[in-house]
């Protein structure tokens, strides 16, 4: 029986956080942590899912049973199959086994890695001929409909389009993107994993998105030409929401407008090899995410603050959706081990928790192995 094995990576994001669903720019890259799926056709209409790492199994009797199940891990897969079902016909069922080393809840897009691996694998095995951009959108839809997170496109895009040693500047309005070699010279990217994921993370993510939409509506009442926060300026924001300044809507929009501009400037810094200017913007992003957007948490703030005054760390910030997960740090290579060890001890002292760290390399997006 024909079978296929596919590998899809998690991602980091250098800068441009919580702006993908506001038509902004993001600067992600795929990393050396992967979900791997193996799929083979069956002769009947059943779908057999196996989560190797848990381990667990789910048998779905037919394609008419593609609903949300109690087994959370399965929903990321079923959500993707359901997207295919909307437009394409599976002539037979299949066996699908999955394993992943993308840490769960660490803000490295473990779910996007699963969704993209499944989407890419099914497309190859059943020869549907769907292009990678559409597969990324189908994977995103799976997250919306089966995981309940109204995420933007960044994670699924990065998992699909990653390229070794390159970051991608993605314009989330046009979906045009460009690869840039990541030249960190004598610096390295280190991720510190708080080991926490706060229970409200998903619902808070969705409310931030709603706050942005509510703020945008107010801006549009005065400036009808504005289509998204990408087109808005601080001046417009002041005129539109001045009377309820400090509201959630105001703060969220302020952060997003600033972050969209910051990401474009930061990309220029990176291209001009001005890593210090780039790093300063990472700290500014963290402050915005923590104070204005309110998606940080004490553990993330602690980690960023603990490296902030270290001359060998040029930038650090929380990464991804927030409320736990990782910070991304750019650290001078020769001090990496020392800083990891100091930060680990400090984190344990202050929180009682063990700190995980990841040294990432930048890898290719989804592909058959
Ligand atoms: C999560 C979402 C992304 C993006 C980030 C924040 O990872 O899946 O779409 O919004 O949060 O930048």
Could you describe the 3D structure shown?
- By secondary structure, this protein is of the alpha+beta class.
- The chain has ten helices and 13 strands.
- Strands 5-4-6-3-1-13 form a six-stranded mixed β-sheet, covered by helices on one side. A four-stranded antiparallel β-sheet has the order 10-11-9-12. A three-stranded antiparallel β-sheet has the order 2-7-8, with helices on both faces.
- It is globular, with a radius of gyration of 21 Å.
- The two termini are 17 Å apart.
- The relative contact order is 0.18.
- The mean pLDDT is 96.
- Bound molecules: alpha-D-galactopyranose (GLA).
- Alpha-D-galactopyranose binds next to helix 4.
In short:
This protein has 369 residues and is an alpha+beta fold. 42% of the residues lie in helices and 24% in strands. The chain is globular, with a radius of gyration of 21 Å.
